[in-house]
């Protein structure tokens, strides 16, 4: 399951372009998407609210390869990493990867604190496929 978010520019339009991009991808198949919801920022609070959603995907990529793939997508969609919790055009987080638990320098799955974030819990409550 991927979490997506953004608060710079036309985020809803960017999400629609992302959905089209992923539907054409050779590496992932979209199983289900959650509604796009607006949420307040956390961490750095002096920024606009975020739009967030969830996407359940099937993939043949292993977790670290999937991470590299989603980082490349973020870059393609204009993501610039300036500081932690900064405003962003597109953020893609790996929330879950099957039932795996991964703790490494580059990847932690399940995503830390997912169970405390309304940006995950509320869209998840709207989905048919439960994790």
Summarize the structure in words.
This protein has 131 residues and is of the alpha+beta class. The protein has a single domain (2-125), classed as Alpha-Beta Plaits (2-Layer Sandwich), CATH 3.30.70. The protein contains three helices and seven strands; from the N terminus they run E-H-E-E-E-H-E-E-E-H. The chain has helices at residues 11-23, 63-76, 118-125, and strands spanning 2-6, 28-33, 37-39, 50-59, 91-94, 102-103, 108-109. Strands 1, 2, 3, 4 and 5 form a five-stranded antiparallel beta sheet that branches. The protein is globular and about 40 Å long. The termini are close together. The model has no long low-confidence stretch (mean pLDDT 94).
SSE string: EHEEEHEEEH
C-alpha Rg (nearest Å) = 14 Å
Shape: globular
Q: From the helix content, strand content and strand pairing, which structural class follows?
A: alpha+beta
Uncertain parts: none
Total of domains: 1
Output the keywords:
131 residues; alpha+beta; Alpha-Beta Plaits; 5-stranded antiparallel sheet; two-stranded antiparallel ribbon; 7 strands; globular
Summarize the structure.
With 131 residues, this protein is of the alpha+beta class. The chain is built from three helices and seven strands. The chain starts with a strand and ends in a 6-residue tail after the last helix.
């Amino acid at each position: 399951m991927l979490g997506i978010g953004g608060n710079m520019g036309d985020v809803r339009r960017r999400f629609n372009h992302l959905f089209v991009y992923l539907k054409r991808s050779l590496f992932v198949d979209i199983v289900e998407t959650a509604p796009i919801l607006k949420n307040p920022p956390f961490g750095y609070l002096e920024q606009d609210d975020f739009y967030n959603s969830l996407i359940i995907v099937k993939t043949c990529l292993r977790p670290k390869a999937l991470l590299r793939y989603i980082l490349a997508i973020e870059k393609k969609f204009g993501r610039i990493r300036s500081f932690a919790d900064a405003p962003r055009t597109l953020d893609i987080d790996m929330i879950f990867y099957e039932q795996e638990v991964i703790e490494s320098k580059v990847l932690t799955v399940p995503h830390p604190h997912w169970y405390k974030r309304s940006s995950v819990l509320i869209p998840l409550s709207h989905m048919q496929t439960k994790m």
